[in-house]
Design brief:
Blueprint (H helix, E strand, L loop, with lengths): L5 H19 L6 E6 L2 E7 L2 H4 L6 H13 L8 E6 L3 H10 L3 E6 L1 H8 L8 H5 L7 E3 L4 H8 L4
Parallel strand pairs: 3-4, 4-5
Antiparallel strand pairs: 1-2, 1-3
């Protein structure tokens, strides 16, 4: 059984708020927050529609922005809080960036049920299983809040 603390919940709420902002901007409703040594370093939101970039998932945007603003070392061993369970592309990107822990809100089945459309049904933990160095995958955290943000009207 995973246990989450108040800091985990506060960071997830930042990711969920970023997902609401993404939806308000016309993008898919996903957000992410980067934390290292207990400090929030960066938040990002999905920007696929507004940038016309199919790789503009919140976690990839987060990695790009954090690397540019803070340097790649800031990501080493960090935690990413993702409003929705990261897809295979995002899981791979986080591994290559050196992320040590991923915490997600809405599950892949939650996302499929709320949004429909195309889906990569491979779960984040399955993508990262056995990788070296290991990446911890934990969730769902604040699942109902994260799912609620997916279901906001466009």
């Amino acid at each position: 059984m995973m246990s989450f603390n108040d800091h985990d919940m506060a960071c997830m709420r930042l990711a969920i708020e970023a997902s609401r902002q993404a939806r308000a901007a016309g993008n898919m409703p996903f957000g992410a927050c980067l934390v290292n040594d207990g400090r929030v370093l960066c938040t990002a939101q999905n920007n696929q529609v507004t940038t016309q970039d199919c790789t503009g998932h919140a976690e990839v945007v987060l990695i790009r922005e954090a690397t540019a603003q803070l340097a790649p070392e800031a990501l080493q061993g960090a935690t990413v809080y993702a409003s929705g369970e990261p897809c295979a592309m995002c899981a791979g990107a986080m591994f290559w960036a050196g992320i040590g822990r991923v915490v997600y809100g809405a599950t892949t089945p939650d996302i499929e049920a709320a949004l429909g459309g195309g889906s990569l049904p491979t779960r984040c933990a399955d993508v990262l299983a056995g990788c070296r160095p290991a990446v911890r995958v934990e969730g769902p955290l604040l699942q109902a809040e994260a799912v609620s943000a997916l279901q906001l009207p466009v």
